[in-house]
Amino acid sequence: MIGVHAGVSMLAGRFSFKLWRSYSIFYALGTAAATRVPVVGMMPFQSMEQMGPLFVFFMCQLYAVSESRRKTLSDREYETFRKRLTSVGVGVAAVIIGALIQSGKIGPLSARVRGLFVPHTRTGNPLVDSVAEHQATQGDVYVKYFHFNVLTAPCGAFACLLFRRTDARVFVASYFLVSWYFSSKMVRLVLLLAPAVAVSTGIALGAVIEWVAAEAATFAEIRLDP
């Protein structure tokens, strides 16, 4: 989710050198520490399903380079430079990844991960296709586990995107949307949605309480005004 948040922030035009420093340090130190764990090893660089954070790290460096030239270029020159740099960077990355996949140094997506993007009965793995926990989530499951939060959580998540947008609120909205998508694809992942639902509901209820308090204060001022 840290990588998703960084990627969404860049795509939404919220890139900053604070984001660059934070994510670069997080990814470098976190990945270096993870590779020291025996069961992990070099999987962050050899598994296709774990390449997302690396791609975001690469794009973050491109954005930092382009942003460093903003003050020395006009707006038109900067936009041209940024588009060219991004296009070349993405093209080079695609060629490298394609070559590594062809050489077998990067493995394909696992059957469980493929089941998140294709119907669960078409992953090609009989074990994954037959297990009930890997099937799509029915609507009544959300009502059973989250009750009225099924209605309030989406309101809070979308409020984060539409009003007073900050890095923290973008993270909450991204977390809710990503966890909702994956939980809808596989019933065992509904648990991942719980923290996002709790936070989003808190934001929605907090906004309602703030509005009621403000209206009550205004009404009290009107009543007390001679």
From TrEMBL:
Required co-factors: Mn(2+); Mg(2+)
Bilayer disposition of the protein: Multi-pass membrane protein
Family membership: Belongs to the STT3 family.
Catalysed transformations (reactions): a di-trans,poly-cis-dolichyl diphosphooligosaccharide + L-asparaginyl-[protein] = N(4)-(oligosaccharide-(1->4)-N-acetyl-beta-D-glucosaminyl-(1->4)-N-acetyl-beta-D-glucosaminyl)-L-asparaginyl-[protein] + a di-trans,poly-cis-dolichyl diphosphate + H(+)
PANTHER family xref list: DOLICHYL-DIPHOSPHOOLIGOSACCHARIDE--PROTEIN GLYCOSYLTRANSFERASE SUBUNIT, DOLICHYL-DIPHOSPHOOLIGOSACCHARIDE--PROTEIN GLYCOSYLTRANSFERASE SUBUNIT STT3B
Molecular functions (GO terms): dolichyl-diphosphooligosaccharide-protein glycotransferase activity; metal ion binding
Protein name: dolichyl-diphosphooligosaccharide--protein glycotransferase
